[in-house]
Amino acid sequence: MANNQSVRRHLDAFTRGRILGKLKEGRSVTSVAAEFGIAHSIVSRLWRQFQTTGTAIRGFSSGRPRGTTPADDRYIVLQARRNRRQTAGEIARHTTQATGRPISRFTVARRLHSGGLFARHPLRCVPLTPAHRRRRSLWCREHRNWRDNEWGRVLFTDESRFSLSSDSHRILIWRERGSRNHPSNIIERDRYGGRGVLVWGGIMLGSRTDLHIFDAGSVNGTRYCNEILLPYVRLFRGAMGLQFLFMDDNAPCHRTVAAEQLLESEDIERMDWPARSPDLNPIEHVWDFLGRRLAARTLPPVTIRELRLALQDEWAAMPQQLIDTLILSMGRRCETCLAVREIISPTKDRIFLAGHPSQGCFGLQSHCAPCYFFNQASFYPSDFSFKHETTPLSENGDIKDVSSKLDNGGCRLHFLEQTSRTLLLSAS
């Protein structure tokens, strides 16, 4: 009986008619309630309603009245847009003072959701100076119309750090209320990332370098020349010939006199790269993918030796189709970077911890306005298919969908390329 009462919230018209029919026959309220498995009070109220009004139709109410008016709803959304760091409780207090009616923070949260505002982590970025904006815009204008074969001759390179400790704010757990401090719900991490390794890699259309793992110590110009330029970059230059184009960022060890002289002596052409532009480098996606693959392992590495071996294995297993698609997105990156008027650029101070980028990672999980579609990408290590979708604007201003699917990927990558109007609105 109790189960029936918990499931059946209201009696339908047919059941009401059957109950009234049995009561008209002279049956008692108690016996009818027991037969239908419902509470005695429900049958009693139904019979009393029929005797009073002559009908047993259930009346419908409008529900609890709204605590806010449409003007209040607009005021709540306006407050959140004016100061986006206000909490729902602060907005509720301000609205209560303005209207004279008590409004809870839960009501404020619902109104904000209806207005399209949701609680999210704020953007972590560094400002661009006018000189940075000019150089980035100039670079994107020069390369926006490059064809695939032109991007195919570029070797994109970068360094990244991977650590044994996890500091990823993207990790979520399921736990019961009041069990926050239970050992099973705690992730241990070192304050400064713990032990880790610094790696270097290069990608290009149809190929990649081996993953180089630096030994302990800082990387200066001499080490960069001896460990990177001579064994890796010179090898690719010899295989591709004069059409080879080498890309590295403006890190101090990359721009030493020794490195410049070595590239000149080996006749290696270096691509001019704008400062503070990690969002334009497709290898940043590769680092994030590599970190996710490490975190998805059944037995994550716990020693430096295991971490080095795991990095080498995951780098070798990374699908080339993923790399090719990332490189072929360079044209869209340039277009999007120009479309948003170079408002901000993501921070460079990322640290990869136990295969997960920490906060500040400008790979797939940051939200960089200059390349919104780049930062909205996400990987799902459990699904080994690759999907690429974009929503660019057509010539008449409508959004058109372009999608392709590659079957032998090692992940699923979803690009979301917003229109320039949406980008400007989200970045403002």
Strand-helix topology:
Blueprint: H1 2-7, H2 13-24, H3 29-36, H4 40-53, H5 70-82, H6 88-99, H7 105-114, E1 125-126, H8 130-143, H9 148-151, E2 154-163, E3 196-204, E4 207-208, E5 212-213, H10 221-240, E6 245-247, H11 257-265, E7 269-270, H12 283-295, H13 304-317, H14 320-327, H15 330-339, E8 345-346, E9 352-353, E10 356-357, H16 372-375, E11 386-390, E12 402-406, H17 420-427
Parallel strand pairs: 2-6, 2-9, 6-7
Antiparallel strand pairs: 1-8, 2-3, 3-4, 3-5, 9-10, 11-12
Helix pairs in contact: 2-4, 3-4, 5-6, 6-7, 8-15, 10-11
Subcellular location: Nucleus
GO cellular component, one term: nucleus
GO biological process, one term: DNA integration
Describe the structure.
One of its GO terms (molecular function) is DNA binding. Helix 5 packs across helix 6 (88-99) and helix 8 crosses helix 15 (330-339). 42% of the residues lie in helices and 11% in strands. The strands form three sheets. Strands 2, 3, 4, 5, 6, 7, 9 and 10 form an eight-stranded mixed sheet that branches. It has a two-stranded antiparallel sheet with strand order 1-8. A two-stranded antiparallel ribbon has the order 11-12. The longest helix is centred in the middle third of the chain and has 20 residues, at 221-240. It contains 17 helices and twelve strands.
